[in-house]
Amino acid sequence: MSHKILISDGLSQAGIDLLKAAGDVTVDPKIAPDALLAALPEFDALIVRSRTKVTTQVIAAGRKLKVIGRAGVGVDNIDVAAALTAGVTVVNSPLAATIAVAELTLGLMLDLARRTPAADAAMKRGKWEKSAFMGDELSGKTLGLIGFGRIGAEVARRARAFDMTIVAHDPYLSDGQIRDRGAEPASLEALLQWSDYVSMHLPLTEGTRNLFNVQRLGLMKKGARLLCLARGGVIDETALAAALDSAHLAGAALDVFAIEPPTAGSIAEHPKVIATPHIGAQTREGQDRAGLAIAEEVLAVLQGREPHFKVLAND
Fold first, then answer.
1. Please, what are the domains in the chain?
2. pLDDT tens, position by position, 243-270
3. What is the per-residue pLDDT across 185-197, written as a single tens digit (0 to 9) for each?
4. Active-site entry in 114, 158, 160, 278
5. Is 181 tagged catalytic?
6. Which is the catalytic residue, given 260, 269, 285, 305?
7. 150 is known as an active-site residue
8. Does pTM top 0.70 for this prediction?
9. Is 226 left (phi over 0), alpha (psi -120 to 50) or beta?
10. 189 counts as catalytic
11. Of 169, 231, 270, 289, catalytic
12. What is each CA distance from 282 to 72, 227, 252, in whole angstroms?
């Protein structure tokens, strides 16, 4: 029996080809919410990225749905609890973007240290302002990583090549596990006080929402820099703007935002913020890995096999 699979967001051609070899595939990466609800009853599988919101209503419309695949890591756009209640398996591809996100983190850290985006913008305005762009070296600085899973560990591995001291906080890992992955364990408070750069690699949950509020931003070392390539909503963006305005923090680099795309006047427009449009996973290699990985996971469920990356909760 040929399974019907709907891809409602962008997916690499490699992933699409693998799915087409095993099922009847419809690709509609710009499908509107109403059209999705109307189309979904005939499909056995739905594959999304972050654009499509898989709500309780969407899941209810998918009367034949057996599996929802998220090409990527975060599943905050999927009502996982509703899916599980409806007997629908949710799978993701958490390994695909690891290298891409780790490399972008280091790139943005260097941009913060050397102010390269501002220097480039000045050059394009015809300005030669060498003295205006005094920077800092990463060598000898302390990098604090909040969340020390696969991506955090890859960031640490690369940062060590810059002779940085690495400290990490992860409530799900023991001190020994953190040391084995190449960092010195620290409490969240100590990490904030010690670190010249703080980078977050953790999911958005009720426990992490606005984790970086006025209090925690205030604990950070004066002149430190903050990076977030994890999930929007982890930072209280109003509090961050205040910390930058007061010069308590020297800068921030954000790839994710509480509202995406950000609205006018948001933190993305702050002159001390380097902002990118959620491109952490946007490499050709990462997209190919994500497409192939989620295709394999979805097909495993449809064919009665156990997937490798079954999601059991939004957090």
1. 3-96+284-302 (3.40.50.720), 98-275 (3.40.50.720)
2. 999 999 999 999 999 999 999 999 999 9
3. 999 999 999 999 9
4. 278
5. no
6. 260
7. no
8. yes
9. beta
10. no
11. 231
12. 11, 17, 20
